[in-house]
Amino acid sequence: MAKALPFHINLAGPTAAGKTAAALAIAQAHACEIISVDSALVYRGMDIGTAKPNAAELAALPHHLINIRDPLQAYSAAEFVTDAQALILEITARGKLPLLVGGTMLYFKALAEGIDPMPAANAEVRAQIELEAQRLGWPAMHAQLAQIDPATATRLAPADSQRIQRALEVYRLSGLPLSHFHARANAVGEPGPGAPLIALEPQDRAWLHARIAQRFDLMLEQGLLEEVKTLRARGDLHPDLPSMRCVGYRQVWEVLDGQSPQAELRDKGIFATRQLAKRQITWLRSMPARQVVACDAPDALAQVLRAVREVLEARA
After folding, report:
1. Contact 71, 241 (CB under 8 A)
2. Distance between CA 105 and CA 118 in Å, rounded?
3. Pairing relationship of beta strands 32-37 and 63-64 according to DSSP bridges
4. Radius of gyration (C-alpha) of the chain in whole angstroms
5. Which of 38, 53, 133, 157 could lock onto 102 through a cystine, CB 3.0 to 4.6 A?
6. What sections of the chain are H helices per DSSP?
7. Is the pLDDT score of 189 beyond 70?
8. If pLDDT is split at 50, 70 and 90, which confidence band does 303 have?
């Protein structure tokens, strides 16, 4: 069972839906501290491609779980749950409202339902899987995964080496499929009564697609290529790390590796971001307790503020 937590508000939505602006509007109206629910914002030195809040936005009110990991390090859903639970208690004790904002739906789900402890990474088992993959190929390893964990294999591409390796590792260490840890037997990610979920979702998918294109163009103008070049220049990062597999970073890395022409970067980056948004919206629609606000409505911010006010008034 998920740990009972003090009252907090969840604000979720796909990439480019306007979550940062909505969160800042809520914070101006109420005494809040923001907890980031984003698996990319945890990484230091990855600012442009993650659309990380700028220095002024970060300084305007307390933000948590941003810039807490080096790109060489992993950050799991289980670690997020531990960190977020502690922060919700601390923020509440300070007399502030914990406001959880982001688009990593697995984190919202894990916090709402709880998460079974997964086995930690094991270098020996990973090396063994890597050797097998070199001999058989990752599609064969994917087929192996399909025999022991069809649910996980179905959502992974046969060439998704990092995630296939982790799923096989978990099974070999625990004897349980990864899907056992990620998907509980109960309903999907439905927040309890003490954690209302406001979901920013577009009525018109074309509106979101236009926003995604506009934002990716801005990232390129701001120096996304240079940001990834700086990360590569460290010499210790590689494209299979979770950080470097983030949307945008993966596409730029492929260009810099000569695997993809730079002329195709914009289209590939926008396409990958659209696919991410599609997955995020699918996750959101599996959360029936959410309160939907049309992020493409002219009065979207006013609707968000009204939803928050009504929730707070109902508790008073």
Report:
1. yes
2. 18
3. parallel
4. 20
5. 38
6. 19-29, 55-60, 77-93, 105-113, 123-136, 138-148, 150-155, 161-174, 178-182, 205-222, 224-233, 249-256, 265-285, 300-315
7. no
8. very high
